[in-house]
Design a protein that fits this description.
single chain, about 250 residues, alpha+beta, Gyrase A, domain 2, three-stranded antiparallel sheet
Length: about 250
């Protein structure tokens, strides 16, 4: 057996040179020992991956999954959005309608109107009476007492009643009002009763002539007003009547 030293000082025999290439390609634990490189090359050892790069790769993967899920959610949302939008719109309209109804009803309950009955008297030169204009189309002056003998505080109920293609206002007075109406209509037959109302604007509505005694407390007249204005007067007077009844209990 012929032996010699290689460049690294290792003893190599002739038999060693006859080893097959596959045997030379086998490695030991260092990875390069059998090729004879361990003398001048450090063995390649990987202990663990570089953490910054590893974390970056993980973060990139998470970002990709997040973007994919987001796109999927947006796609699903876009499909159902019209239905949800219509539902929300319908709900909003219902709430607005309900709120509008409540507002309109509250406004109706807050409506207040006056209704005053003034007796016609002769002029006496004092400030206790005055002439007032009745009927806007063809005004006529009627001299009346400034102080009314009946007002909305004596009303139990007011209503608009249809009458031969037109309408009249019908006023039902309470017990005290009924007695006063009977007293005044009995003592002042042939005189006029001028009716004034404040319903956003002040207006003398009528001045019917007392033709008979009214004992039932029901006073009816044709107002110088539109149907809508008459309804407004009735609403305001009835609201006042309810308040008076509520306070009296």
């Amino acid at each position: 057996m012929i032996a010699r030293l290689n460049s690294c000082g290792r003893v190599v025999t002739k038999k060693d040179h006859r080893l097959r290439w596959s045997t030379l390609m086998r490695t030991d634990a260092s990875g390069f020992d059998r090729l004879g490189f361990q003398c001048f090359l450090f063995p390649l050892e990987i202990s663990r991956p570089t953490f910054p790069l590893y974390n970056f790769i993980r973060l990139l993967a998470h970002k990709y999954l997040y973007i994919a899920n987001t796109l999927s959610l947006c796609s699903a949302t876009m499909i159902i959005r019209p239905g949800h939008f219509n539902t929300y719109l319908l709900l909003a309209l219902c709430l607005a309608f309900a709120g509008g109804c409540q507002t309109a009803e509250s406004k109706r309950k807050k409506e207040r109107c006056t209704l005053r009955l003034h007796l016609e008297v002769n002029r006496d030169g004092t400030d206790r009476n005055e002439p007032v204009p009745i009927y806007r189309a063809k005004p006529m002056q009627v001299n009346v007492k400034k102080k009314p003998f009946l007002d909305e505080g004596h009303v139990v109920k007011a209503a608009v009643i249809d009458d031969l293609g037109s309408f009249v206002l019908q006023i039902q007075f309470d017990r005290e009002g009924t007695l006063l109406l009977e007293q005044y209509t009995t003592a002042n037959r042939g005189q006029r009763v001028a009716i004034f109302s404040q319903f956003g604007e002040g207006r003398w509505l009528a001045a019917p002539v007392i033709s008979h005694r009214i004992a039932d407390g029901l006073f009816t007249f044709t107002p110088d007003a539109t149907r809508e204005e008459a309804e407004k007067i009735v609403l305001g007077v009835n609201n006042v009547a309810r308040e008076v009844i509520k306070r009296s209990k």
